[in-house]
UniProtKB/TrEMBL annotation, chain A:
This is FeoB-associated Cys-rich membrane protein. It comes from the Bacteria. The chain crosses the membrane at residues 6-24. Keywords: Membrane, Transmembrane, Transmembrane helix. The keyword Transmembrane applies.
TrEMBL record, chain B:
SUPFAM superfamilies: P-loop containing nucleoside triphosphate hydrolases. This is Ferrous iron transport protein B. GO terms for cellular component: plasma membrane. Belongs to the TRAFAC class TrmE-Era-EngA-EngB-Septin-like GTPase superfamily. FeoB GTPase (TC 9.A.8) family. Probable transporter of a GTP-driven Fe(2+) uptake system.
Amino acid sequence: MLDAIVTFGLVAAAAVYVAWRLFLSRKAKQRIRGLLNGQAECCPADEASGQCPGGCSGCDHAAPAPRQR
Amino acid sequence: MLDTVAKTYRVAFVGNPNCGKTALFNALTGSRQKVANYPGVTVERKEGQLITPGGKTVTVIDLPGTYSLRGRSPDEVVTRDAVLGKLRNFERPDLLVCVADATNLRLILRLVLEVSSTGLPMILALNMSDIAENRGIRVDAEGLSRELGIPVVRSVAVSRAGVSELLGELDTALTAARHGTASAMTWAERGADEIRQAHRLADQMVARFVNTPDIPRDMSSRIDKVLLHPVAGILILLAVLFFVFQAVYTWAGPPMDMISDGFDALAATVQETLPEGLLASLLTDGIITGVGSVLVFLPQIVILFFFIILLEDSGYMARAAFLTDRIVGGAGLHGRSFIPLLSSFACAIPGVMATRVIENRRQRLATIMVAPLMTCSARIPVYTLLIGAFVPRSTVGGFIDLQGLVLFSLYLAGIVSAFVVALVFRTFVWRGKTEPFIMELPGYKLPMLRSVAMGVFQRAMMFVRRAGTLILSMMILIWFLSTFPGAPEGATDAAINYSFAGIIGHAIEPVLAPIGFNWQIAVALIPGMAAREVAVGALATVYAVGGTALDEVSLGATIAAQWPLATALSLLAWYVFAPQCAPTLAVVRRETNSWRWPVLMFVYMMTLAYTASFVVYRTATYLGG
């Protein structure tokens, strides 16, 4: 029984890893990361600054905003 | 006080190609970005962090080399836009470090004059000062500093000389920049008169502050007389490449046997320790056999990259680009295509990205389309397995290793087919003139042992990491697909025939039968789309679950016993052409910003692969193979 649990656990982990590496888009990965971290979903960049307008982190726009420097 | 603590300064490195920007970047930040002794290695910005002696936190940005801010090729556009603060999500730097090749200051001085109009504070780093000194070139750094109105520092990036002086200057300049008014942006693209004026100014400065000996004490030009000879040079290049492939085969044997024995011992230990069951089968037939059959090729990859890095660092690769320019140009490619094509021997992904140095869009697209035809390192496990299994270990003419000769021929087949395909594209798809290739040949340098060792280590770790992550995971899935569902009661065939892998393999087999592929190969080709070398591990696992091979050596023996020679030759031909790498297609999509080119690449490469395999298989079968 334990033999089967460990084996299928390894197979499931491998399937998740392969799916993550090969099949999920960058956007989907960001969304999952956000959900796992309990963060809000990424919003579009602020038009004027091209930066994150605030409220989330983890996407391309979330480079440190000028006002933080 | 709060400002001092919170502020992260941004310092960008600009300079001409191949002046050592990345080497200086690595020396300052402790990064390990690729450096080589030829222009065009860096095609996108790289960032690293450092803390100055004065406690300032600095983000250092390494930018692609450029001769001006005009931005004619995609990599030059990155540099221009970064300096001008026009890149999306990229804040303008607080300070620029202009990195100069101290042996050749004319072009960098012109760039310094152009960049000074951006209003950004600057420091000039005279890199490779040791080589300049050896050649008898004396630079009056103080005079230059006074003339340009910026600090000038001497440095030797590879030995970290001058790094502390540069850090000190960074501290001073950043403090001044914080209180200064560097925001005035006055740069505008210059007209021909202004460019000529800047050239004159640069020439005057070189005349005043650089003292070059009348007779260059330079070995490079004497060596070049031989190595760049139109006939002797090509023969030497072929001999060098031939020696490398011979070495890959002959030197890698003992360490490969050791790794193979290690995995055998590990599998035996697991079998003895664990009771017979699913887990034992997964570990031995799936993980150890699959991953082991890929990792066994590590010595060959290490030897190949040792030579490539050695040739790059010595300056010989740039000569190879010069020598092959006529051939590359004859195929309608630009001379600058050589470096992307060379990079593709490691992996097509950096090769495709390196095409950013090509200004002409048609020539850039043609180079992108043929880059995957160059033999990447992921093909080595497949080639080695098949050559080891089907080509006898003998010599030709008493000293040429036959297996090495076949490997060399496969590499040559990739190169020749790339040129032929490029010629077809340039003749029928992207017509137009081939632009002349102007390249500044770097001086010869004794390769730094540390740099070579680091480059080889990085390549080896990349291979091992891939084997330990993606390949390991895929081997587990292949094992699962080869094991489940089990054979039904009363079944007479081997259990694997009833598995998911067996069902998939048998379904694809009719399509691949005309080129001599059996269902096991069909199964191996599917995960091989993710990474070519996975096909070897997949074959090992499929045969192991089927009850035959256990490692690469016995996998070789198994396929040698079960496959006709025609099938092996057909599979080799397939791997020369097949687009068996989804990540490469994804990068082509990103670089061309269109799905049209990756789709065209997939279709033409698949057609070539199938046709070549068909011809090879039918011919070999006809001849009795």
